[in-house]
Design goal:
alpha/beta; TIM Barrel; Elongation Factor Tu (Ef-tu), domain 3; 4 domains; 8-stranded antiparallel beta sheet
Length: 830
């Protein structure tokens, strides 16, 4: 299995390579999902590729953000530069970019980012069929599910995260940072609102303060105990998270997992206590196994969102001047950072610059001893003390941040020939069969005073310090009594080493294309017109509505909806609609001349069955699919397919991708603004749907925070979600509704209701094929009133009337669950 390490800076890159990573993933200055890391210029990427390739390592570059139509050309030029530098793969999220890459850069190896939310076998097949060579699976999949995918799909590699930070939400499905702060995680600028404090409250405003504050903050993943099982499941690459982490973190985590993999290969797998403590000591928010063994009860770090450090003891007493005695459970030495967790007030934290044991100053204190420290604040007996910085770990990590360390060099074998009347010959060969030869300018001649010895030659040939090589062995063929100048031997060694380096780089360079071929392919890249959408009544945009109950679908049709999406699962659903309610909704659709579309769950895990027989019995007009695999399955079942906004269609090429996969209509990303949408063509927008009203789902999580917070873990469930309504209140007082579904997934909804009724004229002029109302948890009054007013407004606009949109907005506000917002239509996202 490949060990894949992160690098957010050049020191982190060196730390990863020198600590044993088989490959490193990094981002450039643009289109990277970690835009707040230092990241790499093209010159630095070129340097990184050379440094890695000569050592038989690989470099993958992330181009894993969504991009609008204007950015696509810039992205292609950037990727041309990357492939020219010889990178081993690009990691992408955008389906539109994928479509173009397959046509313009078919030679380039492409990996699907976890941001694409691939989490089932059908999604894997889709990626493979579009030329993807590796898929980074969703972090939420467990051992049985990953094993099932590996068994069902061949021809594409599987990569999973095994260590580091987790997201509360499925990657690629989070709109929290985007909607709340305008910083889109899908654009590489997540502000991490999940690490902030929230209060859990009921519909009546009751605060559950005992639940803890950091209700969306996951602990850190650590699967080092499970590497044998991961290997047995069929995983190809083990990914360490951490492009925003310090180089010391990268060095430590990479080193420990490299050592563990060596033992796995030797058939004697074990992980020492010291290694686990090193992983915790370098950074942890508590460790969790995530979803590998199922929904882990310790997934969240509710009490603290940042580094906890390593517990080292408790306060015994504190005297005047904050002179504090601590009884140690673990070693403490000068240079370590500590923090005392106190019951009240700010936690005192410091770097240990001096300490005493038994009345004497010491540089190191052992477990069991009482150490006296001068704390910068108050502490009480029994307060816990944590080491937040380990100076010994940092010193060890610093060694791995040095370039050309002996441990990371490539072994070479030398052969030196010295024959009278001929140049001295130096031949260097690596273990892959590459070799290079250099000769001295001078011919070997009889020595007058100091003939060359084997020791002389070895000393000169062994001087490979500034190269990526080290001399493993040397063969001599030396005639006695001869000499050539030492300087020429040195020069021959340098020339041979340089030639071998270039040879290794050339052999590791993936196939690429030059500027002329690139321009030729761009010129021939024909943008086909999208297939024509199905006719709409009088070319008006359809009014579509998402509801959760069969009876609500009937209400929506009666109020004027052209199309109703009836959710088979989602927020607020404890079970799927029964056949009777589906039948009633279908009958009403036929009576009204409308379209009943059944919406599949956004998440369809490998071991979860989509009820296709029941769906076929309902005879819907079509299926709404919200993940790549669902699109494939619905199409294979013979249904008309519509795609949901969870597929993150941010540019016309992405829309074209899904239309070519059989979609009859595509809901666009709610992160697009009017300026970006105005650049789309009329034919493109005629097949597009946008959201115009309702509560947006900001997060979907496999972990139920209600069980985690109120029941103390996921091992039990008291059914809180069925007895009350819950929400998260943030530090500014905004309230975000929380709901669960039949599979105990949690959904966080926006604190504000989208309302675009005042902007209907602009939306109609743009020519969208469908305008959608989100009414998943709407009351009968809400569904009826909202749909009727949008229906009335659209009819008046289309037939030349002048609707009083301001008055309509006021009526909508009277039945809305919260104040209104226009999300990104005017502001857009970073």
């Amino acid at each position: 299995m490949e060990l894949l390490a992160p690098a957010g800076s050049w020191p982190s890159f060196i730390a990863a390579i020198e600590s044993g990573a088989d490959a490193v993933y990094l981002g450039g200055k643009q289109f990277s999902a970690r835009q707040y890391a230092d990241n790499f210029s093209l010159e630095e990427i070129e340097k990184a590729v050379e440094y890695a390739h000569v050592r038989s390592r690989k470099v993958y570059v992330t181009v894993n953000t969504l991009m609008d139509g204007d950015e696509m050309g810039v992205a292609l030029d950037y990727i041309f530069d990357l492939q020219r530098l010889g990178i081993d793969a690009v990691i992408i999220q955008d389906a539109g970019l994928l479509a173009i890459l397959r046509r313009v850069f078919p030679e380039l190896r492409v990996h699907a980012s976890t941001q694409m939310t691939v989490h089932n076998a059908a999604g894997m097949r889709l990626m493979r069929d579009h030329g993807i060579k590796r898929v980074v699976l969703a972090r939420e999949l467990g051992e049985k599910e990953i094993r099932a995918i590996c068994d069902q799909v061949s021809g594409v590699e599987i990569e999973i995260f095994i260590h580091g930070a987790l997201c509360y939400c499925y990657s690629g499905q989070c709109l929290f940072s985007s909607v709340v702060g305008g910083r889109s995680g899908n654009r590489g600028r997540c502000a991490q609102p999940c690490r902030l404090a929230y209060q859990l409250q009921t519909a009546g405003g009751k605060i559950h303060s005992a639940a803890g504050e950091y209700l969306l903050s996951p602990a850190d993943l650590c699967l080092i105990d499970y590497l044998p099982a991961i290997q047995a499941a069929g995983v190809d690459s083990l990914k360490l998270e951490g492009r925003m982490k310090r180089p010391e973190y990268v060095a430590t985590v990479t080193r420990i997992y490299r050592q563990a993999l060596h033992r796995l290969m030797d058939g004697e797998y074990q992980v020492s206590v010291e290694e686990k403590e090193a992983l915790a000591g370098i950074f942890n928010r508590n460790f969790t196994t995530g979803y590998w063994t199922g929904r882990s009860p310790d997934l969240l770090s509710i009490s603290r969102p940042n580094n906890r450090g390593l517990y080292i003891g408790r306060v015994e007493r504190q005297g005047s001047g904050y002179r504090t005695t601590v009884r140690l459970k673990r070693r403490l030495q000068l240079g370590d950072g500590i923090e005392v967790w106190v019951g009240r007030g700010k936690n005192p934290a410091m770097v240990v610059e001096e300490m005493e044991v038994a009345g004497h100053k010491t540089k190191q204190a052992e477990p069991g001893s009482e150490v006296v420290l001068n704390l910068p604040g108050k502490a009480a007996p029994g307060d816990r003390v944590f080491k937040t910085h380990d100076s010994r770990l940092s010193e060890k990590a610093a060694e791995a941040m040095q370039e050309n360390r002996p441990e990371g060099k490539v072994p070479v074998k030398a052969r030196v020939e010295l024959i009278q009347g001929k140049p001295l010959t130096v031949r260097l060969a690596d273990e892959q069969g590459n070799y290079a030869t250099a000769i001295t300018p001078s011919m070997a001649e009889k020595a007058i005073n100091h003939p060359l010895t084997r020791e002389d030659v070895y000393d000169k040939v062994d001087r490979l310090g500034n190269t990526p090589f080290y001399l493993r062995e040397i063969d001599f063929h030396l005639e006695a009594g001869l000499m050539v100048p030492f300087s020429e031997i040195n020069q021959a060694r340098r020339e041979a080493a340089d030639a071998l380096l270039l040879m290794r780089l050339e052999h590791k360079r993936p196939p690429g294309i030059d500027q002329r071929e690139y321009q030729k392919r761009l010129q021939s890249e024909i943008k086909d017109e999208l297939q024509q959408p199905e006719p709409t009544v009088d070319n008006r945009p359809l009014l579509s509505v998402w509801v959760s109950q069969g009876d609500d679908a009937v209400r929506a049709f009666q109020a004027g909806a052209d199309r109703v999406y009836l959710g088979l699962e989602g927020p607020g659903r404890s079970r799927r609609p029964d056949q009777d309610s589906l039948h009633r909704a279908g009958e009403e659709a036929v009576r009204c001349g409308g379209q009943l579309v059944l919406a599949l769950p956004r998440i369809t895990r490998p071991l979860e069955r989509i009820p296709w027989p029941e769906i076929k019995a309902a005879a819907p007009y079509g299926i709404l699919a919200g993940n790549p695999g669902a699109v494939v399955e619905a199409r294979e079942q013979g249904f008309r397919v519509f795609t949901d906004y969870s597929l993150n269609v941010f540019n016309p090429e992405a829309m074209r991708f899904w239309m070519e996969e059989g979609a009859s209509g595509v809901c666009l990303s709610p992160e697009l603004n009017f300026s970006q949408l105005s650049e789309w063509t009329a034919s493109e927008l005629s097949a597009a749907e946008v959201l115009v009203h309702g509560e947006l789902v900001l997060m979907v999580s496999e972990y139920c925070m209600l069980r985690g917070a109120l029941d103390g873990g996921e091992s039990t469930c008291s059914g809180f979600c069925r007895r009350d309504k819950f929400a998260l209140r943030d530090r500014k007082g905004f309230v975000f509704p929380v709901q669960t579904d039949a599979n105990c997934r949690a959904y966080v909804l926006n604190s504000r209701t989208l309302c675009m009724i005042e902007d209907l004229p602009r939306l109609v002029d743009l020519g969208f094929g469908s305008l959608r109302i989100e009414a998943r948890r709407g009351s009968p009054e809400y569904i009826n009133g909202t749909v009727r007013r949008y229906r009335q407004a659209l009819d008046l606009l289309f037939y030349g009337g002048e609707p009083d949109l301001g008055a309509m907005k006021e009526k909508l506000a009277s039945i809305a669950p919260s104040e209104f917002t226009k999300i990104h239509y005017y502001r857009g996202v970073l």
